[in-house]
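Final report, Chapter 2: Outcomes

The project's central promise was a pipeline that accepts a single protein chain and returns its three-dimensional structure in a standardized token representation, suitable for archiving and comparison. That pipeline is now operational. To close this chapter, we reproduce one record exactly as it appears in the project archive, with the input sequence first and the structure output second.
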Amino acid sequence: MRKKDSFDSRWGFVLAAIGMALGTGNIWRFPRVVAANGGSSFIIAWTVALIVWSMPLLMAEMVLGRKTGLGCPGAFRDFMGRKFTWMGTWMGVVCLGIAVFYSVVMGWCLKYCVLFLTGAFESGVTAGETEAMWNAFLAAPDQTILFHGISVILAGVVVYKGVHQGIERACKLIIPVLFTLLVIVAVRALTLPGASEGVGYLFTPHLKDLANPKVWLEAFTQSAWSTGAGWGFLIVYGVYTKKKDDIGLNCVLTGLGNNAASLLAGLAVIPAIFALSATPEAANDAMSAGNSGLTFIYLASLFPTMPGGNIMGSMFFFAMTIAALSSLIAMYELGIRIVCDFNVSRKKAALWVVIGCFTLGLPSAVKSTFLDNQDFVWGVALLISGLLCALAMMKYGVEKARTEIINHKWSNLYIGKWWSACIWMFPLMFACVFGWWMRQAFADHPDNWWSPVEPFSPGTMLLQWGILVTLALVLNKTIAAKTIKGYDMTQAPEEEEEAV
């Protein structure tokens, strides 16, 4: 019997789960994508995606964690059989592949928070000038590595302290602060002259856009990436819950919290851009500038033009920073759980994961094009991780998982057969979304699709995925054998809830 470091309360878990879901994608990607895909039509499709894609996967992940008491490789081993351990290895490595560069992105946000606090952006600064500042920052390895290191240390300190003392306590502070900052920035943006045009852009119904397949594909992708569904986070966090914790309600609250934060970010960004841009064309240029272009170039030039702009800018980038921190904590914890499952002490595992992620993140800190490649490769790979979760439920028995694990006698929210239907439909939904991404990649590289050095080519994805799958299969028996025995939380006597 091993003493389990667990979440002390439901809200502690829910806030940590919302924290793992909330990230930079909610704040810099959602406003841009919703604006480019029909506004309210996208929001409708995105809400549907939350119900049929993200929430079912979040629940499936918790089933895996609660049923096995292990991190990703061990969870798939005990849930599906030893020969399927490689699936959990895939999931764990993909998530850690994102963790190594995510701290770099967090460092960017932290740097710009500091710049606004110190008054580096003056009123009248142009987008061209902020672009020059952005490029100069990216070209200064001493700065990018410094802020990458600070980000790693901040997340590392939290996970080193454990689940209750570290993650739960941190998220009880981080998430309320994050929502408060987003509300303040959103309210200020909505009070700007001309903000109503941005609100209309966001919420005016364009129902004909619902007939556009691209709107749905973008919406499902955004929901998958922003909620963290299928990443493996809730497999790990599920290990730290108690037998009586409600899987269905916790996952529904996580999904709703994620979407609420995204909408607040949309209200903070889009009205501000339309209110502060000189022309509608300039606003459209900002919205089509990509994640980093929108955030670090256009918003950096627009915030200083408003009264109290430096304060609003620092609050916005601080919100970005702590959103990134809450996700980075979850990524590190996923790796720590996997290492602990090899019978390594938590503190030693935390040091190994944190030092390893810092070291492997250095290429992304030094060269942003390398980061872009890794973001693309492992971001699309996360969709495959979601498919593996659904396949695990199918092999175990979808209805069995719903009736025996999700809907237990302490559940406050009954999950109906819609969950089972969504899991069974998942391979079809996956084929549409994943196929669309691959089709785009091939269309963008008709002559050199095979090239592994092109950052966004199918070749670079297939090569890196192929290496991972090969290693996972070769090491499958070893990883399965070295991973400790799991503990079925769903079968634990009530008096043993504190042990695993």
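Archive annotation: The longest helix spans residues 85-117.
This record, like all others produced under the grant, will remain available to the consortium after the project formally closes.
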